Amino acid sequence: MEEIETCPAQRLLKMLSGKWKAEIFRLAVESPLRFNSLLRQIQGSNKQSLATALKELEEEGLLEKTTIKLKPLHIEYNLTEKGKALIPVFQQLEGLS
């Protein structure tokens, strides 16, 4: 039997649960993300945990991965429309602390 969510924020909380996901989402709200920049910005993070979190956020449809074909070639992560739609909920959750 499928679990019924009683709170609108419950789905967002599930999507952002896991190491570094909420922090990555917060940073993505501010600007496009690059992997090495995230490594510097998120204290205590490592390549493997960040790569996993980015992949899972991409699979959830919150981030999209874009290859920028300028020299040097690099990859950026941006919020999708689904991710942008969740910003107000995320901001309300941040305001509770």
Automatic annotation (TrEMBL):
Gene3D superfamilies: Winged helix-like DNA-binding domain superfamily/Winged helix DNA-binding domain (1.10.10.10). InterPro entries: HTH_HxlR, WH-like_DNA-bd_sf, WH_DNA-bd_sf. It comes from the Bacteria. It holds the Pfam family HxlR. It comes from Flavobacterium potami. Keywords: DNA-binding, Transcription, Transcription regulation. GO terms for molecular function: DNA binding. This is Winged helix-turn-helix transcriptional regulator. Residues 7-97 form the HTH hxlR-type domain.
